[in-house]
Amino acid sequence: MRRWVRRGARVLVVVLAAGAALVPAACGGGDGEPIRVGFSQLSAEGSWRAANTASIRAALTPANGFELIFSDDEQKQEGQIAALRRFVADDVDVIAFSPVVEDGWEEVLREARTAGVPVVLVDRGIATDLPDAYATHLGADFRSEGERAGRWVREHAPGARVFELQGTLGSGAQVGRQRGFRAVAGEQVAGAATGGFTRAGGRDVTAAALEAWPDVDLVFAHNDDMALGAVEAVRAAGRRPGVDVRVVSVDGTREALRALAGGEIAHVVESDPLFGEQLARLLRRVAAGAEVPSRTVVPGGEFDRSVTAAQIDARAY
Ligand code: AHR
Fold first, then answer.
1. The pTM is what?
2. What is the CA(76)–ligand 1 centre distance, in A?
């Protein structure tokens, strides 16, 4: 457990033994003041991201005690770094961001730490050796998602030749899902390329992959938008999605679950973007200097062909 305590322009991170007493915080959110949160998001590359943004915006409202300063940084790390610097200059109470890639954050996180602004990682993680680079990380376990997709393939398509349709290279979601999948079903992978987590990218890259590896009969897509693009590419290549080429995916969007029910997608591992309220609770604790775990995993289930119309209609994204 860690606690972040702001002292003027300095932040102290205190590693606590279980059950240790708490110390009152010295930053925003007290005395009816809203907690000022600077949040850098990755634009809307697909329906998952749009749902995630909507969930966060709905939770970090003035009525809930927040002032949200939102920056849409369009998949660009330099844009996110600039946004983080603006938040530090603006002396927000907490910075939250979804890092587009894992590497390259040390300098700006050092600046935030020196300025005494705690940082919360949202959705994707980072790779760093910097001690106490961030206060906490809330997001799915991407490696486990990849493992679960791999287990389905091992069980239901052990002889399949797999094309791995990767997300944005170097992102936590790509790295984790690939690692997990390869750990379980790596020997079945014939080739891999990135579709950048977008539907158009998934379509174009799958079209090229089906020509490069004609024996591929299963696509593991790192997200639903790319999976739906892959289905289009399979059909355009004169092959039958779900029969000649199966598609396995991650996310659980309504459109993907419809394709699952219709037989075009074979299996979907859920990655839940609707954690705005959970983020709000965590941000309150960080702003108050309360203990927080260094990692909170957002859980997710799995969907197979038995998905019902009621489940599909109930999807919020
Ligand atoms: O980081 C989470 C991933 O990013 C989601 O699976 C995907 O849809 C989004 O683009």
1. 0.92
2. 15
